[in-house]
Design a protein that fits this description.
Elements lengths: L14 H15 L9 H30 L2 H10 L3 H9 L4 H10 L2 H15 L5 H9 L9
Helix pairs in contact: 2-3, 2-4, 2-6, 4-5
């Protein structure tokens, strides 16, 4: 938790104006396309980055079990491990995972999962040409989602 106080010991609550002024300065001096920033947007950014890290760790654990044991061990791990979405829900303090799922609409989940699957699979020696071909053609016959 970020805590800052005024000189007289009262909590500082003007974060929105600090972020807005800083974003304005960045746009003026460095990057005119820099987005408007506020505390809630930073919360969303943290949530999306955290979800990406949680998913990478999840894939790495499954890949280690597949490499070191067999597919059944990976399935057992999957069924007994806490889902990353639930971990993120708890970190954000949401009472329902449905609220947390709203973050996933802002995150390109398919791209994230595909890139993590490929990266972790290569690191653990689980991807070969056949798997890559299957992954590349898995959804060829389905219409594109808009």
């Amino acid at each position: 938790m970020l805590l800052s106080v005024w000189g007289q010991g009262r909590p500082f609550t003007g974060w929105s104006s600090v972020f807005a002024r800083t974003a304005d300065r960045i746009r003026e001096c460095y990057e005119p396309r820099f987005p408007h920033v506020n505390p809630h947007r930073l919360r969303h950014t943290m949530a999306m980055a955290t979800m990406a890290r949680l998913m990478r760790g999840w894939y790495e654990q499954a890949a280690r079990q597949v490499r070191d044991t067999d597919d059944d061990a990976a399935l057992a791990h999957y069924l007994r491990t806490q889902e990353p979405l639930l971990i993120l829900r708890d970190l954000l303090g949401h009472t329902s995972s449905l609220t947390t799922e709203a973050y996933l609409h802002r995150l390109d989940v398919l791209r994230l999962f595909t890139s993590l699957y490929r990266r972790v699979g290569k690191e653990y020696g689980l991807l070969d040409e056949d798997v890559e071909l299957e992954l590349a053609t898995e959804f060829d016959d389905e219409p594109a989602v808009v």
